[in-house]
Write a structure and sequence with these properties.
single chain; 96 residues; alpha+beta; three-stranded antiparallel β-sheet; 25% strand
Length: 96
């Protein structure tokens, strides 16, 4: 199996969500850097807010990337996973 084929078979997933300094040109506190990966492909993003909010946003991005990658046939399964992730994020946010 070549490198491209193995990447296609892998889902995107959250690798980390860590506090970070305020990005250049931005204001405020409570910034996080999230890292999403699919094999050797990496996406790094920054978001301000509570950690649970940032994690929920990163989970939404991962869900959308995987949905797009898998096509329409996988949407029902991903919708269920998205609902479970949202419920988990809401439960964690309520615990804060």
């Amino acid at each position: 199996m070549d490198n491209f084929s193995s990447i296609i078979e892998e889902n995107f997933e959250i690798v980390s969500v860590k506090p970070t300094d305020t990005p250049d040109g931005m204001e405020g506190d409570d910034w996080y850097c999230y890292k999403i990966a699919q094999g050797s492909n990496t996406i790094r993003g920054y978001r301000q807010g509570k950690r649970t909010t940032v994690v929920a946003a990163a989970e939404e991005i991962v869900s959308q990337l995987n949905e797009r990658r898998l096509g329409k046939g996988a949407r029902a399964q991903l919708a269920k996973a998205k609902a479970q992730a949202a419920a988990k994020a809401n439960k964690a946010a309520d615990a804060e």
